[in-house]
Amino acid sequence: MPKPDTSWWDYHSDQPYKLTASQKPRLRGAQLLEYSRIAATAVVMLPAVLWRYARARPQLPRPDAKAFVGLGVSPAPKHNAQILEMVDELGVQELLLRVPTWDIDHVDRYLDFARQFPNQRFLISILQNRASVTNPDRWQHHLEIIFNSFKTVASDFQIGNAINRSKWGCTHTGEYLDLLERAEAVRCDHPGIRLIGSSVIDFEPLITLRTLMNFRRYQLDGCASLMYVNRRGSPFSNQYGYFDLANKLRLVAAILSLSNRSRKRLWITETNWPLLDTKPWTPNSGHPRSTVDESTQAKYLTEYYQIAYQTGLVERVYWWQLINPGYGLVDHRDGKLRKHPSYYALKSILGGAISAKPD
Predict the structure, then answer these.
(1) pTM for the model
(2) What is the dihedral of CA 62, 311, 251, 57, to 10 degrees?
């Protein structure tokens, strides 16, 4: 497929390039106003969030492994037939497909790819960029095209991606809320479509709170969290001295339980661990302290799914993604497909090697 404009998009790691200091948005009045709203929301809601956090309990019954485990896939003309074979081999039923709004002229190619999987369910993740924010009518038009195109193969649509990173287009949370309101307006003409949102990457609970608790005009059918923990190595490692993966998920679930903008469904729509010595494919610096070898990736993948499952607070977890040498389950360099140990780890989990009870 045609690669996105490489002046701002790194097709090796499937994300925008990191902004330089000169490219980063200057602090302006709109940002300061949004920060003040985030702070006010946090002050008002903190006691209730802490109360819900302390009382968080597993939501039973837990889903079957095949309903719990999701996987991101991307079109790859040279390997599409093999992707279908691997999806069937893994036994995965829940797939995530990214559809960039800046590639809207080729939306049929993404749709044709999705149609190759008649036995799987799709979550369509709609990617935004700066043009989506600066031209909201165009964003709304793109949503209309995507909803119309994919309504025969998918009901769930994630609105936006990594919305708390300015390289993805939003300079503050309020701009993302504008995108959500436009999505709600389009959804009104498409009965049956479900909107998944928040789309906060990493552990930033104040931003999550702001996207889930406000008085804007949208209603989400579920909360998407891009909960990466790879900078800390193991999912058992702590952030801020306390928040391991289980406690992070517990806090997000506590916030979601109070939300007036979303149903109480929590999906982790992205997670992975970058692999050692895979530059330029790895999405981070490639430094040994922030990457892992292949066997450790498989170990951490297993631990992540097990921890999330045991909390009883997460409905689904998607690994991003099937094919990518830098963080995926399969290496496709040199035109050959080599399955990482993490591929077989995910296959084992889908086969039932996951338990609601700690070992």
Answers:
(1) 0.96
(2) 70
Angle at 67 (CA atoms; ends 309, 145), nearest 5 degrees = 120
Angle ∠(321,323,325) on CA atoms, nearest 5: 105
User: Which H or E element spans position 72?
Assistant: strand 69-73
Q: Tell me which residue of 97, 93, 94 sits closest to 80, measured CA to CA.
A: 97
Q: What is the pLDDT of residue 27?
A: 78
pLDDT of residue 357: 79
- Spatial neighbors of 186 by CB under 8 A, at least 6 apart, are 140, 143, 144, 147
Gap between the Cα atoms of 190 and 171, Å rounded: 29
Cβ proximity of 100 and 24 under 8 Å: no
Q: What is the mean pLDDT of each run of 10 residues along the chain (359 residues)?
A: 69 91 83 96 97 90 94 95 98 98 97 97 98 97 98 97 97 97 96 96 98 98 97 92 96 98 98 95 81 97 97 97 97 94 98 85
> Which tokens belong to 95?
């797939």
Residue keyed to tokens 């040199």: 334
The class (CATH top level) of 28-350 is alpha beta
Say how far apart CA 200 and CA 211 lie, in whole Å. 9
Local structure of 271: helix, strand or coil: coil
Within 8 A by CB and 6+ apart from 166, the residues are: 19, 24, 25
Domain boundaries, the chain: 28-350
pLDDT at position 152, please? 94
Backbone φ and ψ of 78, nearest 5° = -70, -20
